[in-house]
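Exercise: predict the fold of this chain.
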Amino acid sequence: MPFDRPSDDERPGPDGILPPDDRLWRHPSELGGSHAPTERSRPITWLAVTAIVVGVALGAVVLWSARPVTDERADGSDDVRAATAPTGVSMLSVRRSLATVEIGDGDTWQQVSGLWVDAAGTLAVPALLLDGGGAVYVIGEDGRRQLARIAGVDDATGIATLVVATTDGLPATLGSRPDVGQRVSVVAADVEDPVAAARVEVLSVGEAADVDGTVHHDTVHLDHGSTDPVGSALVDEGGTVVAMVIGTDGEGRTIATPADTVRSVATALRDDGEVRWARLGVRVADTASSSGAQVVGLDDGSPGTAAGIQVDDVVTAVDGVAVHDAGDLVAALRAHDPGDDVAVTVERDGDRFAVAVTLG
């Protein structure tokens, strides 16, 4: 019985090898670069090429994100801010710590920024804008409009406190105060991109400033003009609030109150409705040589009078803290509480000595 197979004449001989696509094997010579890819290999090849392109693109994005970013300084030079500019995450947190405050009556309304200082609905705002009266509303991050109660106003620091039912945002991370020459970001409640907020240089810290007829001591001066919105937060490179804008002086410079003062004043107004500053009971002026604060008047029955301080005395220190001018004296006294016993160093007729004073 014949086998069911092609005859020898029908099978390929040694010189009649099947084409590669019809075989389950390949000769090594057929796997070289000269061998054209089959239709089945082309999708794998294109997938590999696509993966390489995507990898290169992602690498470029990573390198671009890690680049140093320059920031033009006030003198026109470039300042590398990779180590000084706040991160996007920290700036977004700051933005959530700000709320919009609406003040007005009838058809006349104005908007400023306020700073959440706790999780109990307490907001610090510039005192200047509450002088005109009218209703006050607070708008937080979810857009709710809450009627606010004015807990108190402190004209000495330019800070007022509002209280609403709930904190609609995040309590701010409040630091102490900036340093002279430090660059800070100015962030307002209505800023759309807090990461792109203006960065400015601190010109001075601790000096007096006249804001709308009221002299504030221990303030922060910026190199910016009056374009900074009142109530804006000054933010350092770590996303910490170091001061709050309270207005502008007669020369159009932006004036701010240090964050440590904002915190203590807002808390005192929330709890007591007033701020009880430690008092020496003297009226002072700057000396021409910046060698101290010269006494130009004393209140009757004041702690200074009881301690024997006289008109024309020059106060040069409080408990060892140097006093170069009237602002320094105010700042030194604010570091104490009423009832504290301190040593006040004065100069009189060329003599320097200390007197013991119980602050009022």
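Check your answer against the key: The chain has five helices and 21 strands.
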